[in-house]
Design brief:
With about 280 residues, the chain is α/β, with parallel strands linked by helices. It is built from 10 helices and 11 strands.
């Protein structure tokens, strides 16, 4: 049976570290501050916002909420974003996306200051992931997957890794992060012939295609580490499920993340850690 790579102990370890860091910053007169810029009242945005605020309160990070109506005038929205960029007391900005149709999401993404882009969505942040430069921050979900590997002592160096999915939110960033830690990485996508043949050869499999329960036993072999990034509601089973059919992966894998309770439970910790790091960088 596989080792279950639960996210809760990873999150707890990160929170302990972050609490010490905020205490150190407080001694220097700095309170790390996250600005949450939300347009409208989408249920998924509200859920993530509550989780982020709870985590911030837990470790001593302040939160500034900027909530705009769903029909906000574009210029009012861009002005609010510009104000947050220019506010020296705000260290990180979480801008919920997608934005309503009247707003230009690409323009907003380009406007966001990379040094405050704690969610890793700007071109500057993504460039930092690909080059290793300390510019912006990695996308939170991709880094959460790496934090789980680190916590459980799973070293990617010298291993073969297969990443299913090539999005800029998870697939490509996590592939670059694995490569930076000396894994040999293959990115699989919709045009990859025989994806199961590729993933069976890997030591580490990261499932990040967003296709619920699409990865079964035919994709896997014994002894692998399986990181499931997906999450969705399965109507038939009336429960949350990932991209991996857990009941098929657990008997084969050496280690596997559960859904829920795996990568997702670490993501808000990573977001908050980026706010703290942004505050530390602001002092240098």
């Amino acid at each position: 049976m596989a080792q279950i790579l639960k996210g809760a102990p990873v999150a707890a370890a990160l929170c302990e570290k972050m609490t010490a860091q905020t205490a150190e910053l407080a001694g220097r007169g700095v309170t790390p501050t996250l600005a949450i810029l939300r347009v409208g009242e989408r249920d998924d945005d509200l859920s993530y916002e509550r989780g982020a605020m709870k985590r911030c309160a837990q470790v001593g990070v302040a939160v500034k909420n900027v909530v705009l109506p769903a029909n906000v005038d574009p210029e009012a929205f861009y002005a609010a974003l510009r104000d947050l960029n220019e506010d020296p007391k705000v260290h990180g900005i979480l801008m919920f996306r997608p934005l309503p149709a009247q707003l230009d999401g690409e323009k907003a993404r380009r406007m966001l200051a990379p040094e405050k882009d704690v969610d890793g969505c700007t071109d500057g942040s993504l460039a930092g992931v690909f080059t290793g430069a300390r510019l912006g921050f990695a996308p939170c979900t991709a880094q959460a997957a790496m934090e789980i590997l680190h916590y459980y002592g799973i070293d990617p160096a010298g291993k073969r890794a297969a990443v299913i999915g090539r999005s800029l939110v998870v697939g490509r960033p996590v592939a670059m992060m694995l490569m930076r830690e000396n894994a040999t990485v293959t990115i699989c996508h919709t045009r990859t012939p025989d994806v199961p043949a590729v993933t069976r050869e890997a030591d580490i499999v990261v499932a990040a295609s967003g296709q619920m329960e699409s990865v079964g036993a035919d994709y896997l072999r014994e002894g692998q580490t399986v990181i499931d990034v997906g999450i969705g509601w399965n109507e038939a089973k009336q429960k949350l499920c990932g991209d991996v059919r857990f009941e098929e992966a657990e008997p084969l894998a050496a280690a596997v993340t559960p859904v829920p309770g795996g990568v997702g439970s670490v993501t808000t910790c990573v977001l908050v850690s980026h706010v703290i790091e942004a505050a530390r960088r602001s002092l240098s």
